[in-house]
Specification:
mainly alpha; 7 helices
Length: about 150
């Protein structure tokens, strides 16, 4: 007969909860609360306003949403609100989680924001690839000789 300690039982209870991957990514980045709810951020009026504006953009397409997010300006009105592809990926992921939490994962808007997230991911991969090519020393063929 195996006797489990209280600590092991508590760990099993915590592990039994299924947490979607997108929520886990947001938890790791500090955007979303953790599984236990201990890091619950306060309401973000800027994000809520962005969310409401995007709800009104349903049906305009992923390119329009991507360009809209790129055109947003920060609090100073000059610098971009989302200056990099990583920042765009983070906000689109946050929007997808919010839509999913609101039960809107079957809507056209969810698909469009998911497409905008894919566009930001593609841009990030392109920039990383270009940067790797630029900073690779001339004549260094170690990249080609590496085995996967």
């Amino acid at each position: 007969m195996k006797i489990e300690t209280v600590m092991n039982t508590h760990r099993l209870e915590q592990m039994s909860a299924v947490v979607p991957l997108d929520s886990r990514l947001l938890q790791a980045s500090g955007i979303a609360p953790d599984v236990n709810g201990s890091k619950r951020p306060g309401p973000d009026p800027e994000f809520d306003e962005l969310y409401q504006r995007l709800l009104a953009m349903e049906g305009q397409g992923e390119k329009a949403i991507y360009e809209f997010l790129r055109s947003l300006r920060g609090t100073d009105g000059v610098t971009p609100a989302y200056p990099s592809a990583k920042a765009l990926m983070a906000v689109t992921l946050q929007l997808l989680v919010r839509l999913k939490d609101d039960g809107l994962e079957k809507t056209q808007l969810y698909k469009e924001i998911k497409g905008a997230n894919g566009m930001a991911l593609s841009m990030n991969v392109f920039v990383m690839s270009y940067t790797r090519d630029v900073f690779q020393p001339i004549g260094d063929d170690a990249w080609e000789k590496s085995e996967w």
